[in-house]
Amino acid sequence: MLALTQSGFIGKRIEECRPEIKVEFVVIKTTGDKIQDVPLAKVGGKGLFVKEIEDALLGGDVDLAVHSMKDVPAQLPEGLTIGVVPAREDPRDVLVARSAEGLRDLPRGACVGSSSLRRAAQIRAIRPDIRVESLRGNLDTRLRKLERGDYDAIVLAAAGLHRMGWRDRITSYLEVEDFLPAVGQGALGLEFREDDHDVRELLAPLHHSETAVAVQAERSFLETLEGGCQVPIGGHARAAEGWLELSGLVASVDGSRLFRVSRSSPWEDAARLGVRVAQELLQAGARAILEEVYRDSGL
Questions:
Q1: Does residue 118 sit within a domain?
Q2: 108 & 63 share domain
Q3: pLDDT digits (tens, 9 = 90+) for 146-162
Q4: Is residue 129 classed as helix, strand or coil in its secondary structure?
Q5: Residues 81, 196: Cα–Cα separation, whole Å
Q6: Are 82 and 102 in the same domain?
Q7: Torsion (CA) 249, 84, 25, 141 in degrees, nearest 10
Q8: Could you say which of 61, 71, 129, 196 is catalytic?
Q9: CATH of the domain at 254
Q10: Residue 180 falls inside a structural domain
Q11: Which of 51, 106, 234, 253 could form a disulfide with 47 if both were Cys (CB 3.0 to 4.6 A apart)?
Q12: Which of 123, 47, 94, 83 is CA-nearest to residue 215?
């Protein structure tokens, strides 16, 4: 449902810019969509939510794909590009709770639902007493599981709830200063064939430079760490007045060890900034955590 809403939003923007064009939508179910009963960290592999769509692009079955950037692997297939990045929605995570006002207000031993190792690690770092249980499914499925009492609270991305018009379901926002989101969270990426100049020109008015350069730094950070959804990694960059600030995080799954680094650079050094933050984290002790996670998960 969220994917269709996001695609519909982009389609509407295209038609507003070019009224003579009618956008046709093609629904493609990905591996990540089909596997709903296994935590993402145990599924393995990268590109769980994009591979089938990228195959359709390469095969000429579709001309444009709308992705949540947090689902897009650092390396794209040859011949494809994320050539346009629209303005970002709210990148923060949010708590949706049955009674408490915030994460720190949940009762001792409360059960919180999340499919993300990154979220679980940061929750445990803040509240070691909380039980974090796996939560999969689309947004409305997750909310229904909370309503029927499976969890005391769940953690979701603000962007998805905003785009669905469900802001009223949000109990509290988890601020970036305390709780880092996933790399690319809140941003959409428009992927198309690299040599398709007509589509590139069509989409150009939707591009947002500040978001694009921030996401570039975040993805460079993730690529340097060789991370994916199987690893507790968070990253967020802010772009303003020609400068970028990037914060990166690597945590142990149990939240007992957490390394965080923040650095700044000019926009033109976005990719190098991502590499720098990643390398500093590795040197600070994150390398041992990553090796441990990869070893335990068999990756």
A1: yes
A2: no
A3: 999 999 999 999 999 99
A4: coil
A5: 10
A6: no
A7: 20
A8: 71
A9: 3.30.160.40
A10: no
A11: 51
A12: 83
